[in-house]
């Protein structure tokens, strides 16, 4: 539901978005473009070297095949016929096609899907399970049962010893590293594409509504997509299929913040008033392995999880951004607990175990020594346990304060916390964009994720009932 703002505020925001051309937000960029023939290992190394999370992918013709030892960046494309557009005229310019965006999450999700399918197939052959799960986006239950089969009954994924997890992930990662991008199971969902001729006539409002929130052209790859509904970026391409610019949700947020004077009374609305302080936040403890965290993000279709201690206080943020420099040989590290994984990523040691233990002791009777010790400790910086500097706000934080934090710290989300530093909400760039559109063009909004704990519980119950129904159906089919 849109917040109550004055008609003057709504008109000023609408005018700003309608009267600003997309080209006004674009600046020269050196866009990295990957070939679909590049391997997972080459692609991850390229992304890591540029410290980026995603890149457009094109299908190169066989004549342009990459000789041994060459990098995976695509060369300049052969010119397409004048006026050629993607995707209406496929196969032009020497069969070059824009396949979509590849991001680190696509790679990791595909790795999980392949691992699950292989393990489940082996289990099925041995009679350990009825049939392999869908080899697309894996479910948590599928993964647990598959890894159980992989270890021949020696415990499931959460109970598996860390060294066992690391060994299994390293073995599978070594084989997976040679997979070509075009063969990934999950790929290409988080990005839209716009021809430069259309971009010249597109307003900021149009690119938000018809690009970021309602993407039309995600590319030609037929694999499964993680992202449904909104996307985080739109690429601008020309008649030669050169992608020279990418506009992201972050760019839109920066633009809105730079024009904060046009926000009117919306600027002073608080997180509580905007409904951002009473939303379900998906959390996990620091002892949960990073691979389980990835599976949970896939299951919930979110890109970040709040890491909390034993009393619910936020101590870290586990997100796709933390995978920015991961490579195939690092997949074994996904077996590490999230707390240690984050600490290593930030060049420190996880400090949370002793702190969490002490917090639990404080709640018991007769431990004045521990209480005094904690009281004498220096003030805690949120996120220090895992080497992060968490940016947090209270329910009283205003819209403009939240935008300031997102832009100045170059982050994608801000957690809303209560007086005990427990997360009670989270504000993402997508949330801000959706809020703005809910004011000026509410009919353009796609369906959103559950906005309350009750809705989330209802959806999870429906998923559980559907899974139970499918299992019963499979069992009945086997008996016939």
UniProtKB/TrEMBL annotation:
Record-annotated CBS domain positions: 277-334, 386-445
UniProt feature, compositional bias: Low complexity: 447-465
GO CC terms in record: cytoplasm; nucleus
PROSITE patterns reported in the protein's UniProt record: CBS (PS51371)
Any single Pfam family the record assigns to this protein: CBS
Region of interest (Disordered), residue spans: 447-480
Superkingdom: Eukaryota
SUPFAM superfamilies according to UniProt: CBS-domain pair (SSF54631)
Comp. bias intervals (Basic and acidic residues): 466-480
Keywords carried by this UniProt record: CBS domain, Repeat
Protein name per its UniProtKB record: CBS domain-containing protein
Protein's organism: Tetradesmus obliquus (Green alga)
């Amino acid at each position: 539901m849109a917040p109550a703002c004055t008609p003057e505020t709504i008109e000023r925001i609408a005018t700003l978005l309608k009267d600003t051309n997309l080209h006004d937000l674009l600046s020269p960029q050196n866009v990295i473009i990957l070939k679909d023939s590049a391997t997972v290992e080459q692609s991850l190394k390229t992304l890591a070297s540029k410290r980026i999370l995603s890149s457009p992918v094109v299908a190169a013709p066989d004549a342009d095949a990459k000789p041994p030892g060459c990098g995976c960046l695509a060369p300049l494309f052969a010119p397409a016929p004048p006026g050629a557009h993607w995707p209406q005229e496929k196969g032009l310019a020497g069969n070059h096609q824009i396949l979509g965006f590849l991001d680190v999450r696509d790679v990791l999700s595909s790795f999980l899907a392949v691992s699950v399918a292989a393990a489940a197939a082996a289990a099925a052959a041995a009679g350990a399970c009825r049939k392999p799960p869908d080899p697309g986006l894996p479910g948590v239950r599928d993964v647990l049962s598959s890894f159980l089969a992989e270890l021949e009954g020696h415990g499931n994924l959460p109970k598996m010893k860390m060294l066992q997890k690391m060994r299994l992930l390293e073995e599978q990662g070594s084989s997976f590293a040679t997979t070509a991008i075009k063969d990934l199971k999950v790929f290409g969902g988080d990005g839209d594409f716009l021809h430069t001729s259309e971009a010249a006539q597109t307003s900021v409002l149009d690119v938000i509504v018809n690009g970021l929130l309602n993407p039309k052209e995600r590319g030609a790859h037929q694999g499964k997509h993680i992202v449904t509904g909104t996307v985080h970026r739109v690429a601008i391409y020309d008649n030669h299929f050169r992608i020279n610019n990418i506009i992201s949700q972050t760019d839109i947020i920066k633009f809105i913040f730079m024009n904060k004077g046009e926000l009117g009374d919306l600027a002073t609305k608080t997180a509580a008033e905007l409904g951002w302080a009473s939303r379900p936040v998906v959390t996990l403890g620091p002892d949960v392995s990073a691979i389980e965290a990835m599976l949970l993000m896939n299951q919930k279709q979110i890109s970040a999880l709040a890491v909390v201690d034993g009393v619910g206080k936020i101590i870290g943020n586990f997100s796709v951004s933390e995978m920015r420099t991961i490579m195939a040989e690092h997949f074994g590290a996904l077996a590490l607990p999230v707390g240690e994984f984050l600490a290593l990523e930030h060049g420190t040691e996880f400090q949370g175990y002793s702190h969490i233990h002490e917090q639990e002791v404080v709640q018991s009777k007769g431990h004045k020594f521990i209480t005094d010790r904690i009281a004498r400790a220096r003030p805690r910086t949120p996120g220090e346990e895992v080497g992060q500097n968490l940016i947090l706000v209270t329910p009283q934080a205003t819209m403009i304060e939240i935008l300031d934090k997102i832009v100045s710290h170059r982050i994608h989300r801000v957690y809303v916390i209560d007086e005990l530093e427990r997360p009670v909400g989270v504000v993402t760039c997508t949330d801000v964009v959706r809020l703005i559109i809910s004011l000026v063009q509410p009919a353009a909004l796609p369906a959103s994720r559950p906005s309350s704990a009750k809705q989330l519980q209802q959806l999870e119950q429906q998923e559980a009932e559907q899974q139970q129904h499918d299992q019963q159906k499979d069992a009945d089919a086997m008996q016939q």
